[in-house]
Amino acid sequence: MNKRGEADSGDAWSGARPSRSESGRASWPLRGVTMARLRARFVAHDIYEITGAALQRRGIKLLLADLDNTLVPYCVPLPDERLRAWRDDLRAHGVTLFILSNNRNQVSPPRRNRVELFAEELDVPYIRRAGKPKTPSFYQAMERMGVTKEQTAIVGDQIFTDILGGSLAGVSTILVEPIRLAGNPGRYLRYAAELPFRLLSGKGDRL
Q1: Where are the alpha helices (DSSP H) in the chain?
Q2: Cα angle vertex 144, ends 29, 90, to 5°?
Q3: Rg (Cα) of the chain, in Å, rounded?
Q4: Is residue 13's pLDDT more than 70?
Q5: For residues 108-128, average pLDDT
Q6: What phi, psi does 13 have (nearest 5°)?
Q7: pLDDT tens string 105-114
Q8: For helices 114-122 and 81-92, angle between their N-to-C axes, nearest 10 degrees
Q9: pLDDT at 110
Q10: What is the torsional sign of CA 204, 159, 38, 6?
Q11: Which tens digits make up the pLDDT trace of 183-206?
Q12: How far apart are CA 127 and CA 111, in angstroms?
């Protein structure tokens, strides 16, 4: 845990230990994965279809959010006013936005981790190098914010990290479309591999 109270998922953590079943899932997240684990409970075109009022109605107090291609496109260093307004709407309905990102990149200058800089500018808590779909970072975020699994959701654009990780951690999952695929052929390949599970998620509930 660093001096600001934020953490990398790899940092030492003195919080409650997960149960034996949770520990097993965290150590090898693909063991015993079923189709249901890869299907999001809710779907939305983008984060702006997710309102604070809708989350509040479902008892959600903590919204974990992927950063890249969920909140903003890859490499965008700072939040814009639309994203700040969305955060404010969540707050007004008692929902805390919390960035849970696997990103390890630095911004130069000032040679700081991009997730750290982005989260501080947005004034939200975060965990960088989260290691999704492994679950320790999910449990760490919930403990830090004092909420239960039933009060937590994750929103993300990737099936095999965000949605699978959320399912294994027992929180509600919300799948959004990637903001931008252009610029990296690997993103198209990943999206194609996820397509069957996206179609299954598309039959899910709307918030």
Answers
A1: 20-27, 52-57, 81-92, 114-122, 136-145, 164-169, 185-201
A2: 95
A3: 16
A4: no
A5: 88
A6: -135, 125
A7: 766 566 678 8
A8: 60
A9: 62
A10: negative
A11: 666 666 766 777 777 777 766 677
A12: 18
